[in-house]
Design brief:
358 residues; 13 strands; alpha/beta; 18% strand; TIM Barrel; ten-stranded mixed β-sheet; three-stranded mixed β-sheet
Length: 358
């Protein structure tokens, strides 16, 4: 091959590669390039209350807080899972129950962790968080550790609470530590020699909640000390009877379009203005009802559906042709640099073609 032909081929290869970058091959973190440099605790995530407690929307046969299982939740963008763990039939078993095993037994912790591990295997640029919440009879710490080891989920767990600052999502993804685990059980934290259960107290500030229908969404307590993770319970509860037993603080599956709609956004924005740390987790029931995704995009300062420059023009200004599909967010640095590189490659090709008199 002549040197001139080789140069042309090389420049064409560079041009195609850079085009791929601009057209969406850029690296993403939790679905967005803009989130990659952000510390873990400078991102807002949607989490599901009693994530494993799945019921039917049309004919609920048992108590539940969600209409879809763990894998579908992850596929739909849920990045926080709240798992109520309790000792199972034997000391070596760990069950997921809500609010107790008589009302809802969601199976073993190991089975759910296996789903999470398998999902992380195929979604290696996403960070997921698990909150282990003790329920009924505290689980045997050794059994909990075994569930993590047997499921294989332990290979992804971030070890220990950072001494200074939380790592960025990009750093966590690069280190393959894409699973963060918090526990409210001091015994479980102490019994873990690997240190991958981060203590809930002193790390997580959980605001007031849940709420009853018609109650005001509040944002206390206001006594933050040194917590770096903020969780807001955003769901409505009621007292109900099931199998002859009365339960308080059970899910309220009504008016979900409102609860998970504008009230979700109102609650988040109100608390964001009153607290001194970033809102990290908005914990919801029936996440699939209403729209909790768009407000979360807004909280993360990311483009959202119908986020268009046209929204900022007076109605008498007709600029539809010029601005269709243009996001109100500025282009990322990577995209801008890539476009300049493509322009340079095009100019180089022009010079080569001219030299070869093509």
């Amino acid at each position: 091959m002549q040197p001139s032909s080789m140069l042309v081929a090389l420049l064409l290869g560079i041009l195609l590669h850079l085009s791929a970058v601009v057209n969406g091959a850029a690296l993403l973190c939790n679905g967005h390039e803009e989130l990659c440099p952000r510390p873990y605790n400078d991102v807002t995530y949607i989490s599901t209350h009693a994530s494993f407690a799945v019921t039917s929307k049309s004919t609920p046969a048992k108590m539940g807080t969600q209409y879809f299982g763990i894998q579908q939740q992850l596929n739909d963008g849920i990045r926080g899972l709240h798992l109520n763990i309790t000792q199972g039939a034997t000391a070596s078993d760990v069950s997921l129950c809500y609010p107790d095993c008589n009302a809802y037994n969601g199976g073993s912790l190991k089975d759910t962790l296996t789903i999470v591990k398998n999902w992380l295997d195929t979604n290696q640029r996403d960070v997921v968080t698990i909150f282990l919440e003790s329920a009924q009879l505290r689980a045997n710490p050794a059994a909990v550790l075994k569930a993590f080891a047997d499921s294989g989920a332990d290979k992804y767990v971030l070890v220990g609470k950072p001494a200074a600052a939380w790592p960025s999502l990009q750093s966590m993804i690069g280190n393959h530590t894409t699973l963060v685990v918090f526990s409210d059980d001091a015994g479980l934290v102490a019994a873990n020699p690997k240190g991958y259960f981060i203590p809930h107290p002193n790390t997580v500030l959980r605001l007031d909640g849940p709420f009853t229908y018609g109650a005001e969404w509040t944002c206390g307590p206001w006594n933050r000390r040194y917590e770096s993770i903020l969780v807001i319970p955003h769901y409505i509860v009621q007292t109900t009877t099931y199998n002859g037993a009365t339960y308080n603080n059970m899910p309220y599956p009504f008016n979900l379009g409102t609860t998970n709609g504008y009230q979700f956004e109102f609650h988040a924005i109100t608390c964001r203005g009153g607290q001194s740390i970033w809102i990290n987790f908005m914990e919801v029931d029936y996440y699939s009802e209403g729209d909790v995704k768009t407000p979360t995009l807004k909280l993360n300062a990311l483009p959202y559906p119908n986020d268009n420059v046209a929204n900022f023009y007076p109605q008498f200004f007709d600029a539809t042709v010029e601005i269709v599909g243009v996001s109100a967010s500025p282009p990322t640095l990577l995209a801008s640099v890539s476009r300049l590189a493509i322009l340079a490659a095009c100019l180089s090709l022009t010079l080569v073609f001219d030299a070869l008199r093509i």
